[in-house]
Every structure is written in C-alpha cells, then in structure tokens.
Amino acid sequence: MKNTLVSLILIALLLHNIEAFECDRSATTCETKLVISHFVTMVHPTERAVYLSDGKLYRYDVTNTSAATPINASEVIIGDGFEQKKLVVVFNMSMPGPDIIVYEGQRLLMTVVNELYSEAVTVHWHGLPQRGSPYMDGVPFVTQCPIEPGTSFRYDFIARPSGTYWYYSNMGGQRTGGAFGALIIRENESNSLEEHIIQIQDWSHNYVTDLAFQQWKNGGVINRFREPNPQILDGSILNFISIDSALINGKGRFKSTDTNDYNSTPLEIYNVKLGRQYRFRVVGVGSSHPFRVSVDNHILSVVATDGYDVRPIYHTSRGEI
Ligand SMILES: *[C@@H]1O[C@H](CO)[C@@H](O)[C@H](O)[C@H]1NC(C)=O
Ligand SMILES: *[C@@H]1O[C@H](CO)[C@@H](O)[C@H](O)[C@H]1NC(C)=O
Ligand SMILES: *[C@@H]1O[C@H](CO)[C@@H](O)[C@H](O)[C@H]1NC(C)=O
Ligand SMILES: *[C@@H]1O[C@H](CO)[C@@H](O)[C@H](O)[C@H]1NC(C)=O
Question: What start and end residues bound the annotated signal peptide (predicted)?
Fold first, then answer.
C-alpha cells in the first residue's frame, strides 16, 4: 500500500514536470525552476525496464520475460528506441526539458538546481542578447562560476526580444547529452496562430560526446579500421559526433542495419486542422548535423529567425520557391 502510494506520487510529479511552463500574460515576473540530473534512456522511472514493440512501450517483468504491460511513452526518455540504455543529462527528467513560454518584457527568474554527482553546470539562453545582464548568459568561467553539484543558482533577466530560443547546459558534453529545452518569448499583442514547437536533433544512441571526442583525438577505430568522419548532404566532412537517428522532440526511429528497417518508436504527433495556418517554432537542438525542414505537400513560410523578423521565404519539400 505504502509503495503504491509512493509510486503514484512519483508518477504524478513526473507527469507534472514534463508539462510546459507558461507564464501568465499579465504577470511582470515569472518564476520557475529547472532540475538537472543524470538519467538513462529506455527506462521508466518507476517501472524500470521497458521495451518497444509495434509502436508501444511495454514494461517487462524481469522474473518472467513473456509477461509485459503497456506503459505511457511520455514517461520514458525514448531517443530512437534503441533498447540498450544510454546515459543522458536532462532537465526535469525529460528530453527535451520543459518548454518555457513567457511574454516579451517579463522578468524571468529561473532557479537551476544541479543534481549531478560530479559535474558543474551553467545554463545558456541561446539567442538572447542579454543586454544589461551579460552575467546571466551562462558561459562557464567567463560570465559566471559554474553551478557546483548539489547547489543552485538563480538566473534573473528580462525576456526580450520576442522570438524562438532555447536553453541548454553549456558545460562540456551536457547539451549533446540531452540537457536542452525550448524558450519561447511571445509578442505582447495576441497572435491568433496556434503554435507548435519542433526540436530537431541528430542522435547517437551509444556515444557520449566526451567519449566521441577522445576517440577522435586519439584515433577512433571500428573493427580494426579507422573510423570515417561523417559526411553531410553537401559533401562537407563533419566532426566526430556520429549520427544513428534523427529525433523530433526527443523521439525518432532507428534503422537497423541487420533488418534494414526502422523500429516502431512512437513519434511526436502534431494535430492540425485542414485549411488552417499554424506557427511552427523550429529549433535545431542537435550537435553537429544540420537538417532541412519541410512538410510534404505543404508550403512553409519562414517569417523570423531567433528574435528577428525576415522577409518571408517560402519552402516546399523540393526547396525554396
Ligand atoms: C521542474 O521540476 C521542479 C522540481 O520537480 C519543479 O518544481 C518545476 O516546476 C519544474 N519546472 C518546470 C519548468 O516545469
Ligand atoms: C509468464 O507470463 C505469461 C504471460 O502473462 C503467463 O502466461 C505465464 O503463466 C507466466 N509464467 C510464470 C511462470 O509465471
Ligand atoms: C500519458 O501521459 C500523457 C501526459 O501526461 C497524458 O496526457 C496521457 O493521457 C497518458 N496516457 C495514458 C494512456 O495514460
Ligand atoms: C512588450 O511589453 C513590455 C512590458 O510591458 C515592454 O517592455 C516591451 O517593450 C513591449 N514590446 C513591444 C514590442 O512593444
């Protein structure tokens, strides 16, 4: 009984954490918290071991592997569904971390709690000019002393200008390890367009950046052959961070070379109505591979980048028109 109660409370907390933080439009100050910690992919915080089958996640009974119960995919850090676990660094036990949505001119007070055991942290608010508050920019050893394990720091700055931004840990490989989330600063005037957030990233399910860096620096080999540097669509040779899959809002499908087929990871679903216009806020949260974004049989019009409006550029899946 006691255990059930504890699990219920835990699940309720976890569900609460992954909801977006949206500041009231009339508030002058918005205050919230982000907790950074380690976790692993493909593990449920209370149900433990999970596996993927036919687009659903199941928890399995370790004493009887043919007994399995479906579980809620939103409670697991899935990545590309690769069953072998990967160590991640995340905000509020989710990847991406919670969406932070505020209005232009509001003061944002964000306490960052470092629950990592041995690494320090800073949080960078990508794209924000931080005019008048350079010491809140989150650059370790340059604009602040990093937040030591077991301690916290309160970021305090005015959210401006309006636009699509993201936050992430700026220490070592923590960002590529999963510590990122969207920061949206809405305009004061109400905008009738419904919004959706798309966070796109390249994903490697068995590399961590620090290991990848060491392998590159000291000679990476696979099966006694030198590991090739990945090449992108335009022929450029990229750095050493390999890519297994592409993720949207932390979820994507892995194509196995054994079966030459994709697995069935549950994907992010955007519900839209025919004939309506939407604003998609697209954030590239990856490590090194760029992505071309299009929606089949639809025209995308690019209206702004970071906090700046641009003359609209129209895109289809065949490129610019
Ligand atoms: C993150 O988690 C903390 C601790 O559970 C919670 O207090 C806070 O509201 C969460 N932050 C957001 C932005 O959801
Ligand atoms: C294992 O689980 C299956 C499916 O739920 C069940 O039919 C079987 O009886 C279980 N075996 C044992 C030894 O409990
Ligand atoms: C899974 O969790 C999400 C997010 O909290 C919730 O909206 C949804 O109803 C849950 N689904 C099930 C089947 O419990
Ligand atoms: C939006 O409102 C805030 C606070 O009232 C103000 O500082 C800011 O300049 C306004 N932005 C625009 C574009 O009018």
Answer: 1-20
Judged on CB neighbours under 10 Å (0-12, 13-18, 19+), 269 is exposed
Q: Which domain holds residue 260?
A: 6-42+77-320
The pTM assigned to this predicted structure is 0.87
Question: pLDDT tens digits for 191-230?
Answer: 789 999 999 999 999 888 887 777 766 766 777 887 766 6
Name the residue at shortest CA distance from atom 13 of ligand 2. Answer: 64
From the list 19, 177, 14, the residue with the least C-alpha distance to 101 is 19
The answer to the question of residue 155 being in a domain is yes
CA-wise closest residue to 165 among 305, 275, 21: 305
Question: Does residue 188's CB lie within 6 angstroms of at least one atom of ligand 4?
Answer: yes
Q: What's 236's domain CATH number?
A: 2.60.40.420
Total domains in the fold of the chain: 1
- Atom number in ligand 3 closest to CA 75: 2
Q: Is residue 106 part of a domain?
A: yes
110: in domain: yes
Q: Which helix (H) or strand (E) holds 13?
A: helix 2-17
Alpha carbon distance 86, 257 (integer Å): 19
> Ligand 3: does its nearest atom lie under 6 Å from the Cβ of 74?
yes
Does the residue 56 lie in any domain? no
Q: Is 70 exceeded by the pLDDT of residue 311? A: yes
